[in-house]
UniProtKB/TrEMBL annotation:
Membrane topology designation: Multi-pass membrane protein
Name of the molecule in the record: Mitochondrial FAD carrier protein flx1
Source domain of life: Eukaryota
Cellular-component GO terms for this entry: mitochondrial inner membrane
Keyword Mitochondrion set for record: yes
Provenance organism: Lithohypha guttulata
Amino acid sequence: MPQDGRRISPATVETIAGLTAGLASTIIVHPLDIIKTRMQLDTSPNPLLNSSRSVAHDILRNEGPTRIRALYRGLSPNLLGNASGWALYFLWYKQGQDLVRSLRAYPQNKALTNVDYLLASAGAGALSAVLTNPIWVVKTRMISTSSATEGAYPSMIAGIRSIWRTEGIRGFFHGLIPALFGVSHGALYFLAYENLKIWQRAKRQDQQLSNMDTAIASALSKVFAGTITYPSQVVRSRLQRYDPGAKIITANPGFIRVTTDLWRNESILGFYKGLGPNLARVVPSTCVTFLVYENTRWALPRLFNEDSTDTKTVL
């Protein structure tokens, strides 16, 4: 411990690790997030007509003022949402595990069960979803429109002001119901991730996991959870969209209406529009997130010369 008596708390470690991981992963894959959202909002009955390649080509050719600006439109709310979302999620996920362990009176060396992991991750996900939903509304509206479109939000602050002025507080919570359904994504992800890490440690006879082990576990878990829960993302995007050229903001159609219209007009394939670029975005993003997270949470206590029982992800 440092001579000045400073000590970094476990909660601070989790928050900083999650914040750092969210920032790094968002910057890397933001362009794919734009393509995915544009595909989710396409209402044509044939999803093949609006492929990820055609969407990307259209953005690069028609939007600007530069290609880089076009590909990174809406980055500020995406950075804020992901960084704060991951920071809060990891903080509450760790606290949720501690709470479950305390309520069940587990000894320190007893592993949590699958149900325990589900409860901790679902609770963390629900709290994070509610607090970050306003940011996601602004992000969705920014990346779903070109900056040249009349009425499009020129910045995150402008978007917040516009929503407050025209829709009130309720405008910030469009898509919250499917977002809460999407909490199951985090629960399924962490269930798979924790079990894969246990399996990998057993194979290595409790030796330290490598970065490759972490990347494989996070990638497989993301594909598993992402494919199962993806339809909720499509519904949420459609609830959060808006027409920037509209003179009057119409009432939100509602979760049930959007879901039934999607099924009636676009069939089951409509619920999976943008899945390809989504997996191409979230799998490397998740790998980066958890590599940064695992290594940051290992390194921070050692920067303060503290002993840590955390298993290091080997560099």
